[in-house]
Amino acid sequence: MTVPFYGAEDLLEETPGYPYRISRHKTIIAMAGGKGGVGKTVTTASIGIALAEAGKSTVVVDADFGGANLHQSLGFMNPHISVLDFFTRQENDLNKLLLNTSIPYLRILAGAPGAVGLANLPFWIKLKLFRHINRINAEFIVLDIGAGAAFNQLDYFNYANLGLVVITPEPFAIQDGFNFLKVALLRKLYRKFRKVDEIRAIFKKLLKTDIRLYPISIKALTEEISHLNGSILYEWVRTIKSFKPAVVINMVEDKKDQVECLALQVAAKEILDIDLNTFCFVHYDDNYRKGAKLMRPDLLMANDGLAANDIRVSVKHYLDEDVSALEKHIPNSFWSSLQSQDDMENEDIICSIKCTLWGRCSAQNGGYPCRIKVIGFANQKK
To answer: How large is the C-alpha radius of gyration of the chain?
Structure first.
C-alpha cells in the first residue's frame, strides 16, 4: 500500500508564477497551523493588536475562506463588508473594504462566514487576491491563512515576508506543525525547480513512496541531486537556507511544555535542514481565552494579561531586532533541558536502532527517550 506524503496532491499542482515582489514598504506575515484548535486566529488578532499598539499601521486579513471568524476576535458579529464583495466584483479596491476596529492603527479585512463555495476557489482567484492584498495601504499585513496544507495555504505562507506556524504542546499539533513546515519547504523547492527534469522526476517519485518506511529528509534529497550542475545545486541550497519560518508555541503551562515544543526545532534541523526560530511562547491564560470567547479585544490584550504580555514582548523584539535574531528569544536553559537525562526519566519513547533516523539523527542518544519525541515516534519502523 502506498501512502503519499502529507499534502502531496497539492505539491505538484501546476500554478502560474507569483505576480511580483512584496512592496519593500510593507511586511506581510502569514499565520498558519497544521491543525485547527491551536489558537491561530486569536494569535493573528493579538499580533495585529500588538503591532498597532506599537504605532504601526496594521491590517489583519481573514484568508481562511472555509471558516472565516477572525472578525469575531476583534468584536465584529456580522461585518457589513467583507472579502466576499471582492470575489463578487462589487469592489476591486481592498482598501475600501477595510473596517476600522476599536484599536487605533488597526483595521480588518473580514472574511465571509457561511458563503457557499469560498473554501474551493480556483487558485488564480486567490493569487489575484494576494496581488490586491499587496496594494493595501498599511505597514504590516497579518494573514490568517487557515489550517491545513492545501497548496493555496502553502503558497501564501511561502510568499509572505514571515511565515509563523502556531502549535500547542499537544502531540498531534506538534506533528501537524512539522508536517506543514515539511510540505511548505517541498512546495517552495518544487516551485523553484519544477523545470529541471531530474528534480521534477524526484518529486514525482516521492508520490509513490511509503513515508511510514522511508520518511522524507531534505538532506537526503540534497545528496540525491548533488551531481547536478553546480549552479543548480547552489540555488537549491540557497532556497533551503532562505526558508526561515518561525513558530508560535501557544498555551504553554510549564517548562515541560516548552521543552516538548522545542523538540520540533531539533527535528526541523535534522530532517528538513532548516533553522526553525521561535517567535513567541504564549502562556496558558484563562483571561486571554475569555476575551476571545466574549469577542472583547480589550480583554484579549488586557494590560495585565499574561498571554498578552508574551505577544507584546515578542512583537517588540521583532520590531527592534530582526527576524534572523528570533532564536535569541529562546533562553539557554531551554536548550540545556533538552540535554538533561534527569528530565527525561519518565518519558516512554526510547531512542533505538528501530528508528529510521538511526545513525543520522543529531539528537541520537541510544537507550534514552527520543528527543524529537512525537516526530521521532512517527518516523520509527513498526
So the answer is: 21
